[in-house]
């Protein structure tokens, strides 16, 4: 029985990510089809080559998303989007949902965090224990005085593993160690507790095996 259960678990490890990804893609496609399909049926004729075909709603959704992406390069369009965002931030409850989704999307490639080049850092809690963090605010004037104080402090977001959440801490810039990872890789590393990374990703955070051995030797000497 243990052998059978072990084989089944191994199968689930392979199947769940694939099925989950395909389900999300199917859900997005079917949602676009349900939303835009009736519009196309109303606009297009009932017969002929230009009639509505299943799947055209998905294509229209992709085309609209691409067009919006192109419009973001226009100053006027960005001004309109900024105005709508400020209006949503004034509505109770709506501003909380909008702000959370905006910040979450900003962590993705091409989002605000990636465009601003937010630095991935290693935060050392105690000798030998480090957390992966992301500098989200490096301008001292943007940090409230009680949190910043007189030191050169920055806001560091510490993501949790296997869930969407984390802590924001304010630390001295000099106590942070830059990590050669982009925002996307760092978030994936943290959310999966490092299980999705390769050995070189761990080396970026912890140092090379030789560096780790040197630290252990130094620690043994102090003990």
Can you describe what's shown?
The protein is of the alpha+beta class and 223 residues long. The protein is 56% helix and 15% strand. It has helices at 2-43, 56-71, 75-88, 94-106, 112-115, 145-148, 183-191, 199-206, 209-222, and strands spanning 120-126, 129-137, 153-159, 166-172, 176-178. Helix 1 packs across helix 2 (56-71). The longest helix is centred in the N-terminal third of the chain and has 42 residues, at 2-43. It starts with a helix and ends with a helix. The mean pLDDT is 76.
List keywords for this structure.
alpha+beta, 223 residues, 2 domains, 9 helices, 5 strands, 5-stranded antiparallel β-sheet
What is the number of strand segments?
5
What Rg do the Cα atoms give?
A: 24 Å
Biggest sheet details: 5 strands, antiparallel
- The H-and-E topology, N to C, reads as HHHHHEEHEEEHHH
Structural class: alpha+beta
Helix proportion range? 55-70%
The mean pLDDT is: 76
- Count of spatially separate domains: 2
User: Would you identify the regions where 5 or more consecutive residues have pLDDT less than 50?
Assistant: none
| CA-CA gap between termini | 47 Å
What is the beta-strand fraction?
5-15%
Q: What best-fitting shape do the alpha-carbon axes yield?
A: flat
Number of helices: 9
What's the arrangement of strands in the largest beta sheet? 4-3-2-1-5
In brief:
The protein has 223 residues and is α+β, with helices and mostly antiparallel strands. It has helices at 2-43, 56-71, 75-88, 94-106, 112-115, 145-148, 183-191, 199-206, 209-222; strands at 120-126, 129-137, 153-159, 166-172, 176-178. Helix 1 (2-43) crosses helix 2.
């Amino acid at each position: 029985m243990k052998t059978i259960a072990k084989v089944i678990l191994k199968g689930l490890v392979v199947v769940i990510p694939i099925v989950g990804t395909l389900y999300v893609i199917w859900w997005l496609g079917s949602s676009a089809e349900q939303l835009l399909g009736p519009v196309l049926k109303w606009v297009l004729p009932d017969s002929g080559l230009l009639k509505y075909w299943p799947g055209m709603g998905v294509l229209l959704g992709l085309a609209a998303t691409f067009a919006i992406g192109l419009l973001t390069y226009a100053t006027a369009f960005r001004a309109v989007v900024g105005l709508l965002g400020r209006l949503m931030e004034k509505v109770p409850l709506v501003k909380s949902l909008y702000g959370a989704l905006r910040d979450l999307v900003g962590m993705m490639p091409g989002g605000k965090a990636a465009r601003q080049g937010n630095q991935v850092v290693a935060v050392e809690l105690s000798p030998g224990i480090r957390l992966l963090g992301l500098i989200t605010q490096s301008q001292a004037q943007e940090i409230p005085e009680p949190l910043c104080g007189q030191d050169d402090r920055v806001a560091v977001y510490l993501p949790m593993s296997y869930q969407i959440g984390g802590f924001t801490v304010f630390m001295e810039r000099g106590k942070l160690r830059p990590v050669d990872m982009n925002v996307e890789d760092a978030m994936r590393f943290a959310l999966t507790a490092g299980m999705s990374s390769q050995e070189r990703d761990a080396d970026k955070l912890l140092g090379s095996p030789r560096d780790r051995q040197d630290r252990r030797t130094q620690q043994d000497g102090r003990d």
